[in-house]
């Protein structure tokens, strides 16, 4: 089963997913092993690997190490076309639909298309929406694009609807890694009610309660990176919150 098929199956059965974001710059081998052990123990669904800035040369090594240790699918979440490892299972092919920077909407895709196609990776077209996280984040700075204001749920829902109608298979709403303020449940719910494709939500999620509330609001996949880097044991709590039956 492809990664996208697994996402669709889970959505159909109302099952939520928990994705652990691994930033290759911040992850050494020993901490990676500890994260993998906890991910297996807690039933985490995916590893997302990438970041807005990847300075180190460790991407392949990290992906290979995860693949060696477990069967949890590895999904690339690239900040630039250089962040591609053919050893991963799938690639979120991100177009920054919340911004008006043509390079991140289509420009970089054109330049890297032959290379991406040759990688043999499962390519998942993803409408990427950056939402204001209360202060500039790396992604909001690097993308050179204005994030969606955090209280403008109508802009978010129209953007997501447009992305879906353009044929994108996923919508990823992100307040940016380490965001001061995570995306509100109100905005998540407005978007979730208006699209049929799976909805990924991340950025600034620091506790299990917020992970649970985001699922209740309609997120299908919760992505957490920063909080886990600070306290690895959060993996268990977060996974349990995401797996908890959401009562609506
Ligand atoms: C960032 O959505 C991810 O792009 C995860 O954010 O690192 O704040 O959890 P955090």
Automatic annotation (TrEMBL):
Record HAMAP family: GGGP_HepGP_synthase
Catalytic activity: sn-glycerol 1-phosphate + (2E,6E,10E)-geranylgeranyl diphosphate = sn-3-O-(geranylgeranyl)glycerol 1-phosphate + diphosphate
Protein name: Geranylgeranylglyceryl phosphate synthase
Superkingdom assignment: Bacteria
GO cellular component assignments: cytoplasm
Short name of any one Pfam family annotated for the protein: PcrB
Binding site for Mg(2+): 23, 52
Protein role: Prenyltransferase that catalyzes the transfer of the geranylgeranyl moiety of geranylgeranyl diphosphate (GGPP) to the C3 hydroxyl of sn-glycerol-1-phosphate (G1P).
EC number in record: 2.5.1.41
InterPro entries, sorted: GGGP/HepGP_synthase_I, GGGP/HepGP_synthase_sf, GGGP_HepGP_synthase, GGGP_synth
The family this protein is said to belong to: Belongs to the GGGP/HepGP synthase family. Group II subfamily.
Named cofactor requirement(s): Mg(2+)
GO biological process: glycerophospholipid biosynthetic process
Biological source species: Paraflavisolibacter caeni
Binding residue positions for sn-glycerol 1-phosphate: 172-178, 203-204, 225-226
Entry keywords, A to Z: Lipid biosynthesis, Lipid metabolism, Magnesium, Metal-binding, Phospholipid biosynthesis, Phospholipid metabolism, Transferase
GO MF annotation terms: heptaprenylglyceryl phosphate synthase activity; magnesium ion binding; phosphoglycerol geranylgeranyltransferase activity
CDD domains the UniProt entry points to: PcrB_like
